[in-house]
Amino acid sequence: MAKNVKLVVQNSYVLLDNGLVKLTILKPQGIVAGIKYGGLENLLDLKSGETGRGYWDINWSLPGGHPRYQQLTGTVFGTIHSSNDKVEVSFKSIYNASTSGIRLPLTFDLRYILKSGDSGFYCYGIYERPPGCRAFDLAQTRMVFKLQRERFHYMAITDEKQRIMPMPEDMDDKRSKQLIVPESRLLTNPINPDLKGEVDDKYQYSMDNKDAGVHGWISSGPIIGFWVIFPSQEFRNGGPTKQNLTVHTGPNCLAMFHGTHYIGDDISAHFEEGETWRKVLGPFFVYLNSTPSVSKAYNLWSDAKKQRLFEESEWPYVSDSLIPAQKACVGLSAARTEGSWQTESKDYQFWVPTDSNGKFTIKNVIPGIYALHGWVPGFIGDYLDQKLVTITAGSEIQLGNLIYAPDRDGPTVWEIGYPDRTALGYYVPDVNPTYVNKLFLHSTEKYRQYGLWDRYTDMHPESDQTFTIGINDPKKDWFFAHVDRRVGDKYYPSTWRIKFNLKSVASGIYKLRLATASVNRSDLEVYVNHRDNNHQVFEVQMLGMDNAVCRHGIHGLYRLFNIDISSELLTMGDNSILLTQAREGDALCGVLYDYLRLEAPVNNSGI
């Protein structure tokens, strides 16, 4: 019977243990310092030091600048999921554009998953460029495992490409000669004399993406296999014919995601100033197997190939708790980015609702190439399928199962509203009798009445709105439009306060999900506890031209903002988030909020 997965968080280490595999990960860096399995206390190379055994790295440069190399290390640890069946942990580094000096303009989140009964673990990274990032070029990024050099001597990448490898000491000038290609070494006096006269070069073990999928090493005494398995190639750059490194003398085992090998700078990812981007690299599976018999060592390779097929059959890896996307809106559009169907005007769009089981059929589509978009009431964000849909005359296409995983970094501390892309769930006041339209007096669309923006001042003549979590009701106490407050015949900025209590503060980054149903000419600012520069966590100026406020609407262009809040800004006990509509002198500027949610960085939400 499979044992429960245990998570132990220490000052400098995070331990994951399912009885078969035990991981030791440096905290908060996210470097794998130890892998215990099959009777070996650590499969990784002890001579490399804790920070050089299992790590992520990146090669990058500023436009026109010198190439830079750095190891990726997290600064904030968090627990994404912890149960008897599965543990997922996060090691995140958040880019701050205001920090001086030359820094990698990238936020990254390194994740590890260990499941009950699994003879291995999953690794993946979330790379993201938030607004305000400087331009840079990404040449290469990968994860590296350096295995015990005294034990792992035999590598395998295909049925034909397997061999005993040189020792790392063989790369020294005393034992080999460097050839014209810097990475190529002619073995002149190798530790293993059988290899004398051979050439070793890490590029000799490259594989096309389409032909790769599993590669690794087999140790001697005990006989253990260490395998990197890619269940899919979609997150690797260059497509099916891109060649990538796999293993090389060290003994090193690589998980390559982006690289310029065999193509050059043409394949580097060039990011412009301010360009946003998000990509999930992986997950890949580190599979471990063993046998007590030397004569059956080859079976470890055969078993690893079977595990690869299993991982491929399980792709995409998804949550165990899927629910049907009922009443979702699903459509085909020429728009190619998430949510951009809202502003696509040149081509046709075909939309349908899903049924109670999340199923849908789109009929009578004009032939063309489309992207599949969607959104689900009750969930934030937009769905965009990564594969384009090509429609030809008379064709019928089965899309299979589609999985939407809305953004979430941790458990909910509190939430306000219901995410349906409208402000319908908030308080809409009665019309001023001077401006009544009788058609809407007893209508569900009372927001169609004229002049409702001025009713905010009638409700709050002296001070702005305060909303206390657990006490106030959004349908009664949250005005549907965040507008300026009128004083006499002038309009002044308004600041809304959300009050909440934390029984404890979890160390790390809290996340505020702020979804707007419509914005018009607004300068929106967000503060934590105090309205000053040191407590400001978000600002955007002159946002939106939706005109939903003055045109009697309840929604316009949907937007979602994901705002990082350091735990250092929060206190145990009473806290506030301040939303400021900072534009003044404009009766018709304003924000219609759809939904707000605060997420804690770890399992203990602090509420």
From TrEMBL:
Pfam families: CBM-like, fn3_3, Rhamnogal_lyase. It catalyses: Endotype eliminative cleavage of L-alpha-rhamnopyranosyl-(1->4)-alpha-D-galactopyranosyluronic acid bonds of rhamnogalacturonan I domains in ramified hairy regions of pectin leaving L-rhamnopyranose at the reducing end and 4-deoxy-4,5-unsaturated D-galactopyranosyluronic acid at the non-reducing end. Keywords: Lyase, Secreted, Signal. The keyword Transferase does not apply. It comes from the Eukaryota. The keyword Transcription regulation does not apply. One of its GO terms (molecular function) is carbohydrate binding. Its main location: secreted. Belongs to the polysaccharide lyase 4 family. This is rhamnogalacturonan endolyase. It comes from Heracleum sosnowskyi.
